[in-house]
Amino acid sequence: MNKNETFKSPHPVSTIFFNVIHFVVYSNIFIALSTAAYTAETSLLLYGNNGNVHVNTIAFCATLLFYCFHRINKKKFLIPDENQEERHDWMNAHKSIYYILILISLILLSVQLFYMPLKTGLVFIPVGLLGLGYTFPVIPSGNGWKRLRDIYWLKTLWVAIAFSWLTTFLPVAFSAPLSSMLKPEALFIFGRNLLFVFAICIPFDIRDMNFDKLKGVPTVPVSVGIKTSIYIAIILLLFFISIVCIQFLYFGLDIRVAAALFLSAVLTIILLPLAKVKRPALLYPLLYDGAMLVQWILVFAFMRF
Fold first, then answer.
1. Which of helix, strand or coil describes residue 159?
2. Number of domains in the chain
3. Fewer CB near the last or first residue (10 Å), C or N of the chain?
4. Domain that includes residue 82, residue range
């Protein structure tokens, strides 16, 4: 074996594949797709279809806009070691992509809003306020102004509420009277989504645990440790399963839907222990953001049986 054969460059196809994966995940397109799928799931459960394309597009664009903007704004809060992580290093090397995606998502979002009835504005207002408070310091304190994400472990709760509110009530407000948001079937979906999203957010806090500790951000893992945090996430998903069982037994939830939701929770519970501080950064969005996408796929597939 000669020297040139000893160190072979990666196969061009695999290099392209991994570059595409990095782009889709680190550009926030993947989380935006997962959010759109979760929004479509609400329509699937309530109306038997994947919903209106404009509604799903708004969920996609709003998520993409928020995450890209938040990532750029977050850069000034990063400590040196954190800034060198793969996901932040990718952003530093491709910062222009974030600005392009922000512009594209803003344009698409503006266009899609023309298709929205005025009543859907009541859904956007709470999400917008949470997004602003999560990114910018808006709360006065003895130590200066704080963001919502800086207040105890509520950082995770704000994200879960915003996601659950948008993915549940936007399709409802578009397709039915606003009073439908208070119907049991819609409230059950909101409750399930809140528990599920809260649970899959905790692994991301585990990933950032050491950095949050240095910055004084008291997330769940910083406050109670990794093992207890995973137990909390599992308990949240067990409550999710309990709601599914209650709906099935007393509110006529289709057994196929119940089975799909149950399976998605079980699969996520199995994946939770994989969350460790030193896991590759790419693992987290693929496994845990992807859990929303998997749940929609399971519900869609089981309803076709």
1. helix
2. 1
3. N
4. 14-303
Both tokens of 108, joined, read 């698409």
Per-residue CA distances from 297 to 203, 279, 290, 301 (Å): 22, 26, 11, 6
Residue among 293, 286, 303 nearest 59 (CA): 293
Cα(174)–Cα(169) distance, integer angstroms:
8
CB 48 within 8 A of CB 302: no
pLDDT at 1: 44
CATH of the domain at 79: 1.10.600
What is the separation, in whole angstroms, between the first and last Cα of the chain? 56
The pTM is what?
0.89
Residue type, 179: S
Q: Is the pLDDT of residue 242 over 80?
A: yes
Burial (CB count <10 Å: 0-12, 13-18, 19+), residue 244: buried
Please tell me the number of Cα atoms within 13 Å of 40 on its side-chain side.
Answer: 22
Residue 7 lies in a domain: no
Question: Does 36 have pLDDT greater than 60?
Answer: yes
Burial 138-154 (b: 16+ CB within 10 A, else e): eeeeeeeeebbbbbebb
Residue 92 lies in a domain: yes
